[in-house]
């Protein structure tokens, strides 16, 4: 039968279904088979021939027919999994049912009355097929998920058969050990099967159905406690699924082994179409959704014993995907994962200096979520990443994405996850140390040209985000500066460009109108002063550029020390702001020429769709303060829960602990508009950590002025030479202990990741548009 005929017959069946007012019996095979038995429709056809309005009409007007359709489609998948899909006809039926369910499921999820449908048992669908014992009946959802799992390891359908002979001796699907059929070499599997286009496409269709099952999460509003477990993921990743381990490994290896370059030959993708990419995208999306797990980081050291004796030890997480991920521990596995993710994240960068030489991948956001989960759930992986300079292969692409997306409203989520990853990494000393490696990779980026290290690159990009990103990024400023504070004690030598950028930020953040215009703005000044103090106290010797920049901009520090606190001046500063609500002074920073070949960061095209995000927790909730001891170990400084934070907080108390106090001191005027008071300004002005810098200026400024007068100098190289050889040993206050603010998991970020991840998946699945125009509740779809 031609494909046009088959489409026509399928459409006729759909029309019959929508017009029948009487329930159709489940036993009426002649009717139900029209949907899958004699048709060869692509997934795009199914979406076109089953319009949303008709699915909703059947749901409202003849619910029993919609229920039977779902039940029969699942039954066909179960039969296919039982038989092993040997004939072409069986394979076609499985694919047709899979496409139909992918189309219908979102409309079942969007109606709260239907939500329990898949979790109810269907008479006659017993676990022991054929026996009608009701106790044994499985919920429809479980039958569906187990069938999909079996079908993903079905010889000659989704995996290579290991038998050479004819169909009759085909592998028995029930005794088959799916661990021998893992899709790709990598973690825990050494054999790389021959690529097979049909198997890849069949896997992709089944994974799309699986992702659609998991997407019930999109139809529930964001819950503040975020502890809601996704029942589909929970069952699929439990011991009930005998394929959990090989499937986890297959997904992870398929993603990490993917090389979009086209077997290493530039421009190869122009000659060969790459059928792997759609599968890799689908695999990455199923993987990150399966790893959506809230519990605090599972600490698993890779050793478990099966005795009932160790009940005292918490078992690993119930979710086997999270469990397996947290147990990976072999160096070569870590190397494979890290190299794979770094290769894929760098792919969009390769585009810029050899345009079109490689296929440009689009799933970098999914990769960033995967990398985040790896670091968060597997501390050994995090330490491995930081052990060598390989971490820089992750850092550079992230900085590239951040710089590129800074003006684009539709990519706020990408900005956040990039910054969260850097915050997580910056909590480890090794990250700061690695940043000292010279930066020579010349990826064209829209930033000033500089010669220096990866630390300079990070500072220059952060400066660019703060001074020329859009308004919605302001909540990230705390995070960006916290990252700089965390790495500052380890930075051996900042370039002049980076040093000037840091001082420009201090200048912008310490204007009176900025300091007085919001309750939290002065935190940014505290962070920057802490950066300068760390570098002066711990890395003075190599940092003559920064010391010189501080001397040149000494007036900024004097102004801070003499910050006015009287009401009239505060009032005047705010008036000035009303007249010129410029976000930050962008003029006084001498912007160098941008790199050659770079494109300025562009705003989103008008009309671009974006998914809304929940707010992220403030920096004081996001991080936990620790002090670095002499031997390099960390000691938490968080006050014990019962102790009020007003007493007993460390002497270097900085604003994050006092902010409740400040809220009290600043008055909220009638309009709910916040307004600063003298007491409020005094409460934090007295804590500004200016002593070290003032001492440095007191000692060095007269000496520098003397050189200038003696030699009639206006030449900075001579002054820099003097500063390079200078020393402040014994002249500065006793070094303060190093404070590190480490990221700590909390329910707020867990909820943020869930909404971000599903928003990305919603927007990336456009062909077919699985969730488009359905009533999702987890986020809103907005136009820029």
Automatic annotation (TrEMBL):
Residues 665-675 have a biased composition (Polar residues). It comes from the Eukaryota. InterPro entries: Hid-1/Ecm30. It holds the Pfam family Hid1. GO terms for cellular component: Golgi medial cisterna; Golgi trans cisterna; membrane. Residues 568-607, 624-675 are annotated as: Disordered. Residues 639-658 have a biased composition (Low complexity). PANTHER family: PROTEIN HID1 (PTHR21575:SF12). This is Protein HID1 isoform X1. It comes from Lipotes vexillifer. The lineage of its organism: Eukaryota, Metazoa, Chordata, Craniata, Vertebrata. The gene is HID1.
């Amino acid at each position: 039968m031609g494909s046009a005929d088959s489409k026509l017959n399928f459409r006729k069946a759909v029309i019959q279904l929508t017009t029948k007012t009487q329930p159709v019996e489940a036993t009426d095979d002649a009717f139900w088979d029209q949907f899958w038995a004699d048709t060869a429709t692509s997934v795009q056809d199914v979406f076109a021939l089953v319009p949303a309005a008709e699915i909703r009409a059947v749901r409202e007007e003849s619910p029993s027919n919609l229920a039977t359709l779902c039940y029969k489609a699942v039954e066909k998948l179960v039969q296919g999994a039982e038989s092993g899909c040997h004939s072409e006809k069986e394979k076609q039926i499985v694919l047709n049912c899979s496409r139909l369910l992918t189309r219908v499921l979102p409309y079942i999820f969007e109606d709260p009355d239907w939500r329990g449908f898949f979790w109810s048992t269907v008479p006659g669908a017993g676990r022991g097929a054929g026996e009608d014992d009701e106790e044994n009946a499985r919920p429809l959802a479980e039958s569906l998920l187990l069938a999909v799992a079996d079908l993903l390891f079905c010889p000659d359908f989704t995996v290579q058969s290991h038998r050479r002979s004819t169909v009759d001796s085909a592998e028995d699907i029930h005794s088959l050990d799916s661990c021998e059929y893992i899709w790709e070499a990598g973690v825990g599997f050494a054999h790389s099967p021959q690529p097979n286009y049909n198997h890849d496409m069949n896997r992709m269709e089944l994974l799309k159905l699986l992702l659609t099952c998991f997407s019930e999460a999109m139809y529930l509003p964001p819950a503040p406690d975020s502890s809601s477990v996704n029942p589909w993921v929970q069952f699929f990743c439990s011991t009930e699924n005998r394929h959990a381990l090989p499937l986890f490994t297959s997904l992870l290896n398929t993603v990490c082994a993917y090389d979009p370059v086209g077997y290493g030959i530039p421009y190869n993708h122009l000659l060969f179409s790459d059928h792997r990419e759609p599968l890799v995208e689908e695999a990455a999306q199923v993987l990150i959704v399966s790893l959506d797990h809230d519990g605090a980081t599972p600490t698993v050291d890779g050793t478990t014993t099966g005795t009932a004796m160790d009940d005292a030890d918490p078992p690993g997480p119930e979710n086997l995907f999270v469990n397996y991920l947290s147990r990976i521990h072999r160096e070569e596995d870590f190397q494979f994962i890290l190299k794979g993710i770094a290769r894929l994240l760098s792919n969009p960068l390769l585009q810029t200096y050899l345009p079109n030489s490689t296929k440009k991948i689009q799933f970098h956001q999914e990769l960033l979520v995967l990398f985040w989960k790896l670091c968060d759930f597997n501390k050994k992986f995090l330490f491995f990443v930081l052990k060598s300079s390989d971490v820089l292969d992750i850092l550079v692409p992230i900085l590239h994405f951040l710089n590129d997306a800074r003006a684009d409203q539709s990519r706020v989520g990408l900005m956040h996850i990039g910054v969260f990853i850097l915050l997580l990494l910056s909590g480890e000393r090794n990250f700061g140390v690695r940043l000292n490696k010279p930066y020579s990779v010349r990826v064209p980026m829209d930033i000033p040209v500089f010669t220096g290290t990866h630390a300079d690159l990070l500072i220059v990009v952060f400066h660019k985000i703060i001074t020329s990103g859009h308004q919605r990024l302001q909540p990230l400023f705390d995070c960006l500066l916290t990252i700089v504070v965390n790495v500052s004690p380890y930075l051996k030598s900042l370039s002049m460009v980076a040093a000037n950028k840091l001082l420009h930020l201090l200048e912008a953040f310490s204007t009176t109108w900025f300091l007085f215009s919001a309750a939290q703005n002065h935190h940014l000044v505290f962070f920057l002063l802490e950066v300068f103090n760390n570098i002066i106290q711990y890395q003075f010797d190599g940092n003559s550029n920064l010391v010189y920049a501080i001397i040149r901009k000494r007036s900024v520090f004097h102004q801070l020390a003499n910050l006015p606190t009287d009401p009239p001046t505060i009032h005047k500063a705010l008036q000035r702001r009303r007249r010129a609500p410029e976000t930050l002074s962008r003029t006084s920073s001498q912007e160098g020429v941008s790199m050659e070949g770079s494109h300025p960061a562009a705003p989103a095209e008008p009309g671009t769709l974006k998914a809304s995000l929940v707010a992220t927790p403030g920096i004081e909730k996001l991080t936990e303060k620790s002090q670095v001891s002499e031997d390099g170990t960390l000691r938490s400084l968080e006050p014990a829960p019962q102790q009020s934070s007003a007493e007993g907080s460390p002497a270097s108390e900085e604003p994050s602990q006092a902010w409740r106090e400040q809220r009290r001191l600043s008055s909220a005027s009638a309009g709910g508009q916040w307004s600063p008071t003298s007491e409020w300004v005094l409460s934090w002005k007295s804590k500004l950590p200016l002593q070290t810098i003032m001492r440095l200026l007191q000692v060095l400024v007269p000496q520098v002025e003397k050189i200038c007068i003696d030699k009639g100098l206006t030449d900075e190289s001579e002054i820099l030479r003097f500063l390079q050889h200078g020393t402040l040993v014994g002249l500065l206050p006793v070094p303060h202990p190093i404070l590190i603010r480490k990221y700590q998991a909390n329910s707020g970020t867990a909820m943020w990741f869930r909404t971000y991840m599903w928003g990305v998946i919603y927007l990336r699945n456009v062909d077919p548009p699985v969730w488009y125009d359905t009533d999702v509740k987890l986020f809103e779809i907005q136009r820029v």
